[in-house]
Amino acid sequence: EVRLVESGGGLAQPGRSLRLSCEASGFKFDDYALHWVRQGPGKGLEWVARISWNSGSTAYADSVKGRFTISRDNAKNSLFLQMNSLRAEDTALYFCAKDKLSVGPDAFDAWGQGTMVTVSA
Amino acid sequence: DVQLTQSPSSLSSSVKDRVTITCQASQDIRNYLNWYQQKPGKAPKLLIYDASNLQAGVPSRFSGRGSGAYFTFTISNLQPEDVATYYCQQYDSLPATFGGGTRVEIK
């Protein structure tokens, strides 16, 4: 069974940093691209970032470019999102999602349950 | 960025009804469109990929059609467990974008 478990969310002040993690199991981790997708309170889904299977290619939404960094550790089956210079508008539930392909984006065929990030003074 | 316009934003239908949601892209995205279901308090779930392919394990009452810039998603026999918000998503170009969602309720 494919499983993705996010952690690291919480309350942060504007301008501060948080690091999200996503632990994966149930599939060959280094065969697939991975993504972060967020959902603001009561809002729709917003794609945040993607990393290819070997970390050779990354991509970001304009709203987070230059502030967030996506990375992965294939030896530990883990995905990360380093979030710097946080803003109130970054408040959201952050999901990690598995791509159907090694580079992506394609279809997101598995999702974690999400970790909540709240940015407030 | 490719904009996806879903309609309606919400609908209410009876059990066993046929329900159709549309997703219009701001440009030609070939068949690079997926559909997801998100139940309250849960993560999204992939239902349809590449516009018309049913993801493994998804009931056959769900279907998708379309190509280019116009797509439809249909639930052919609405069931109580289908209460959810449905999103389309394109991956023709980065950034991947989602439609605004369609909330489906039972009358």
Give the helices and strands, then pairings:
The complex is a heterodimer of chains A (121) and B (107).
Chain A: E1 3-7, E2 10-12, E3 18-25, E4 34-39, E5 45-51, E6 58-60, E7 68-73, E8 78-83, E9 92-99, E10 108-111, E11 115-119
Chain B: E1 4-7, E2 10-13, E3 19-25, E4 33-38, E5 45-49, E6 53-54, E7 62-67, E8 70-75, E9 84-90, E10 97-98, E11 102-106
Describe it for me?
The complex is a heterodimer of chains A (121) and B (107). In chain A, 0% of the residues lie in helices and 50% in strands. In chain A, a hairpin with a 5-residue loop joins strand 4 and strand 5 (45-51). Chain A is globular, with a radius of gyration of 13 Å. In chain A, strands 2, 4, 5, 6, 9, 10 and 11 form a seven-stranded mixed β-sheet that branches. In chain A, strands 1-3-8-7 form a four-stranded antiparallel β-sheet, with no helix packed on it. Chain A has 121 residues and is mostly beta strands. With 107 residues, chain B is mostly beta strands. Chain B has strands spanning 4-7, 10-13, 19-25, 33-38, 45-49, 53-54, 62-67, 70-75, 84-90, 97-98, 102-106. In chain B, the strands form two sheets. In chain B, strands 2, 4, 5, 6, 9, 10 and 11 form a seven-stranded mixed β-sheet that branches. A four-stranded antiparallel β-sheet of chain B has the order 1-3-8-7, with no helix packed on it. In chain B, 38% of the residues are buried. The mean pLDDT of chain B is 97. Chain A binds chain B through residues 35, 37, 44-47, 50, 59-62, 95, 100, 104-109, 111-114, and chain B through 34, 36, 38, 42-46, 49-50, 55, 87, 89, 91, 94-101.
